[in-house]
Amino acid sequence: MALKPFAFCTASVFALALSGIAHAQEAAPQDAVGDGSASAEDIIVTGVRASIVGAINARKNNVQIVDSIVAEDVGKLPDNNVVEALQRVTGIQVTDRAGGEAATITIRGLTDPLTTLNGRNIFTAAGTSFALQDISANLVKKIDVYKTRSADQIETGLAGQIDVQTRRPLDFDGFTISGLVRGVYSELADKANPNGALLVSDRWETGIGDIGFLVNASYTKAQFRNQNLQAGAMVPFATATPPAGSGLTPLQRIFPGDRNQNWTPGLDAGLPIAPGSTLNINGVDTPYYLSRDAVIASDLYGERKRRAVNAALQWAPNDRSVYTAEVFYTGFRGKTFNSLNFSFVDWWGNLGDNPGSTFELYDGTNIIKSRQVGAVAGFNSGDTATNKTDSYVYAFNAKWDVGDRGKITADVAYQDSKNETSFFAIRTDRDPLDINVDFNAGGGLPSYSFGNQGVLTDASAWTVGNLFDSGTKNTGSALTVMLDGEHEWDEGFLRRIKAGFRYDDRKADNYVRDQGAGGLGITLDQFSQGTPFTNSGFFDGRADIPTSWVLADPRSMDRDAVRSLYRAGAAGAGGLLLSDQLTFGHVFGIGEINTAAYIMADGEIELFGRPLQVQAGVRYVAIDTDYDYFDRGNGFARTTVSTGSSKWLPSFTARYGITDNLRIRFNYGETLRRPAFGDLNPNVSLTGDLSRIGFGSGSAGNANLSATHSKNIDVAVEWYFERNSAIYATAFRREISGLVVPLTAREIIPNNYLPRNETYTEIFNITRPVNASDGVLKGVELGLTYFPTYLPGPLNGLGFTGSATILDSEQTIPVVDTNGAITGSTKSAFFGVSKLSYNATLAYDSGPIGARLSYVWRKGFLQSNEGRSFANPIGFWRAPEKSLDLQLTLNVNKDIGITFDAVNLTKAKQQNYYKFGDVGNPQQFNSSTLLIDRTFAVGVRFKFD
Predict the structure, then answer these.
(1) How many CB atoms lie within 10 A of CB 136?
(2) What is the pLDDT at residue 292?
(3) Distance between CA 233 and CA 228 in Å, rounded?
(4) Which pLDDT value is given to residue 636?
(5) How many whole angstroms separate alpha carbon 538 and alpha carbon 542?
(6) Residues 693, 707: Cα–Cα separation, whole Å
(7) Bridge pairing between strands 494-517 and 533-534
(8) pLDDT score at 80
(9) Which residues of the chain fall short of a pLDDT of 70?
(10) Nearest Cα to Cα of residue 676 among 582, 588, 551
(11) Which end of the chain is more exposed for a tag (fewer CB within 10 A), N or C?
(12) Tens digit of each residue's pLDDT (9 = 90 or more) over 418-476
């Protein structure tokens, strides 16, 4: 159904474009291919149209294939952060919209874009990438998304490069003050929050040249509520009449390894779902049913605050040199409280006085759709978490013109980033209850109720259980020096030679603390710390489920008092540490030197009387890394590893102007994806048997991981058929070797560091990353921007911009046994790749009114593989995603505008389901549903200069 509005919209807009072609042929010609300047007859536009047209000009004038977002003024991107602003760019897909904002971005389906700020690589703490959502859209002058790469660009990021550009004082003619104030209302949280930005800039003509100073600051606050409803994973159960000799009672759960290794969790396609399918139980072919093990409701309340400041000082002593000193700061503060209600649905006892449980199967399967089950266990958990990040970039840049045609640029930057998190949770357990559940009552949503619903909100019916107390600390820093020089010529084949050098000294450290304890054995109403919390209105009436439950609320507690109670009253908790005793254990420390050098040349010849431009170059990169890893399971014992590698990366681009308005481009380049620092850590991080399935889980890195390498080909056709309008298409192919995939093996780790409570285990599924896959990603991008010049009266100013991306991907996936040995391979789509995505924006800009109505949609995609612990298919798929957003601006005068913004007007949801190959679907294998927030914002923008 999602294709239908796209088809109608696209057809009507393309018809509009074709009807205007006759007018386009009479328009003044565009700039000659490659001269990098606009035609003298180009129309100067402002407002909404200015930002859209600015994006066209950025693509037209760049040698590489670039899509851009241009903000005409501070705060004039209709989004709260950079990720959301990018969702309407060709080839961009965004996802993970929890908390009222998008958080994950892919370019053409790949999840590792290089993030740069004013051309400088940036990162968050001990990571290798930057959390782009931490950059307020209010600070942005322009965002360039590079789909191809030249030799003078940093080599990492298979997906491409996202360069965020901020403003500098010499961009302005003189004194300027500009800003915005907005109130943003969150519907799910029922809260209104502030969003503001202020830019102050001035420049002066002095006896030593022009001097400019700018400060641009932004503050955002968001209170949000995430409501997630989930049907648990699948496990096998005996039928109502198990055969003699199996040893099973009717509808008894069949655990893996119980009775002669009867089934293996985590098979790619899960266990067979055909009616009558059997397992070998005690040597007997035993039919089984598949059913969910639990129903889970998560009601999370959160608040985040983001502060950002960009300050720049510029000095231009003459018209041949500019010196820029700047600092960029982003600060994030987040806190969440998760009210979790978890009920097992895996018991085979009686329901009240009725003998046996009742159930209903999906037609033609052995999958249980609904059940009445007696005496199932359950728990609640009050989880509170905090997250604090501070990142600084200090930079100095100098540009000199040398002679008539030469340029030299020098850049020195130092970064420092710190992140610290904490997690504190208390479980509460209840006595068994009867439950009546339908795992998909419609639309992927389960419904369920308990025999005694009053227990859910009765604090005297819940026993204070396990304590979880942990935290992390991450630090990162880098000193980067870059030097570039170039020389240009006006005539002959050779038009430019450019060469440069980059030196980067990176440090990263990760620390962790973790402790816990078993239950106290007292009821919640007897717990002397804090006040129990009872939520209300869960899931907004969209599902037939309990809407309230009570649990312990760590937010209202003195944590040291809680730790002391557990030390005195919980078994094995005597070793719990208090706040003044808590220390972080060092997990890894990394020092990495990255040295790169490049040389490239631009040339131009005439071919059939038209200019053919070529650019060729090669980049050499050498990396030397020293790793220190510390084993949590062995007293943080230290292991040191040193590695080194080098690579030559060629690139070539050709751009040919068939006419003044029609051009084609070809690009070949090679890029790298380096392993995340945490993925290199060989030591194991463990999680207990939280769901009581018989084993825990764990993860570890692989110190032998190498960089993933991609060979990239792009071919583009662009037609600038009218002023401020264009149609373009790009075909591309990525041949990627050494893709990292997770391999899982069953391991026994005795006497491990996990807390000694009922979740303790010594059996784990341990997942490690390996370079064990190769793949191909290919596709086509189509884009149209059209502002017709012939529309009459009030329709003048109406325009459209939209794009579609069609992707096809395939990678090899190793098949492993329970010991983690590779026994074969299969094929799979790339994670995170939607085969089709599109966006469409109807824009209007006339007189005092500016408006955008935008719709984005992406087809369902394979998000990840689950942890190989259950009987369902391992593929975790995301259902199609969409968002309809509106922005309105009323310009009171040339200096002041009033804005209204609305995000997710249709109240779209985010849903997941299980699928692998031909097995699985959203109906019988539904998993989770997250309500996506709808927000409304009213604000005022101003600019005085």
Answers:
(1) 26
(2) 96
(3) 15
(4) 86
(5) 9
(6) 36
(7) unpaired
(8) 65
(9) 1-49, 71-80, 258-261, 348-357, 691-692, 818-820
(10) 588
(11) N
(12) 999 999 999 999 999 999 999 999 999 999 999 899 999 999 999 999 999 999 999 99
Question: Count of CB atoms within 10 A of residue 62's CB?
Answer: 18
Both tokens of residue 152?
């003078």
Are 319 and 296 contacting, i.e. CB atoms less than 8 angstroms apart?
no
Q: What backbone torsions phi and psi does residue 401 show, to the nearest 5 degrees?
A: -85, 130
The residue ranges of DSSP E strands in 109-190, in sequence order, are 114-117, 120-121, 140-146, 161-166, 176-186
- Residues in the chain, how many? 945
Beta strands in 573-707 (DSSP E): 585-607, 610-631, 637-657, 662-673, 684-687, 696-700
Dist CA 282 CA 920 (whole Å) = 29
Short-list 618, 477, 484, CA closest to 155 = 618
| Residue that is written with structure tokens 């929050």 in the block | 193
Q: What is the DSSP letter of 110?
A: B
For residues 73 and 58, give the distance between their C-alpha atoms in angstroms, rounded to a whole number.
17
DSSP conformational letter for 547 = -
| Distance from the first to the final alpha carbon of the chain | 49
pLDDT value for 353: 47
Q: Where are the alpha helices (DSSP H) in 74-178?
A: 82-86
For the record, the structure tokens of 357 come out as 């449980």
Nearest Cα to 551, choosing from 568, 538, 570? Answer: 538
Compute φ and ψ for 585, nearest 5 degrees.
Answer: -90, 140
Q: Cα separations (Å) of 589 from 51, 474, 480, 506, 622? A: 44, 10, 19, 11, 20
Q: Are 554 and 579 in contact (CB under 8 A)?
A: no
Hey, what amino acid is at 365? T
Beta bridge partners of 657: 663
DSSP 390: E
User: What one-character DSSP code corresponds to residue 523?
Assistant: B
Residues 6+ apart with CB under 8 A from 442: none
How many CA atoms are closer than 13 Å to the CA of 764, on its beta-carbon side? 23
Both tokens of residue 506? 């990176």
